[in-house]
Amino acid sequence: MDQAELSAFCQAMPATSHVVQWGGADVWKVGGKVFVVASFDPEEGPRFSFKVSDLSFEILKEQPGLRPAPYLASRGMTWIQHYAEPGLSPDDLKAYITDSHRIVGSGLSKKKQRELGLLD
Predict the structure, then answer these.
(1) 57 and 51 in contact (C-beta within 8 Å)?
(2) What distance lies between CA 78 and its chain's CA centroid?
(3) Angstrom distance (rounded) from CA 98 to CA 84
(4) What pairs with residue 80 in β-bridges?
(5) Could you tell me the mean pLDDT of each successive run of 10 residues in the chain, 120 residues long?
């Protein structure tokens, strides 16, 4: 997934916003809370960090091309970074980013979820 694809994909999700911070990273938020951080360094290649469930964290952290997300996972958070091949397929990466949006959005107050249109 390149930068334009990530942008289009994340913009299509409800209540998202985008900022560039932390040394030029693309940071996508739902309700002001981060759900994906991406960098597109030409030498290192794209890197995507996203929140996952506890079970997914335990499974994914052992997979080639994936690791606990630097800084975030070291603080006890269940974040994974896709940093190299083989990593995740494009469809699986999109599914995990979508799930990250859901996990982070569900952590907002019910009032905030209603305001943002995240509740059914």
Answers:
(1) no
(2) 11
(3) 20
(4) 50, 68
(5) 95 96 94 96 93 96 95 85 95 97 95 88
46: left (phi over 0), alpha (psi -120 to 50) or beta: beta
pLDDT at residue 120, rounded to an integer: 65
- Report the alpha-carbon distance of residue 88 to residue 108 in Å, rounded: 28
- Is the CB of residue 113 less than 8 Å from the CB of residue 105? yes
How would you classify the pairing of strands 45-51 and 79-82? antiparallel
Yes or no: say if 19 and 31 are a contact pair by the CB < 8 Å rule.
no
Query: What does the DSSP assignment read for 8-76?
Result: HHHHTSTTEEEEEETTTEEEEEETTEEEEEEEEETTTEEEEEEE--HHHHHHHTTSTTEEEPTTTGGGT
pTM of this prediction exceeds 0.90 = yes
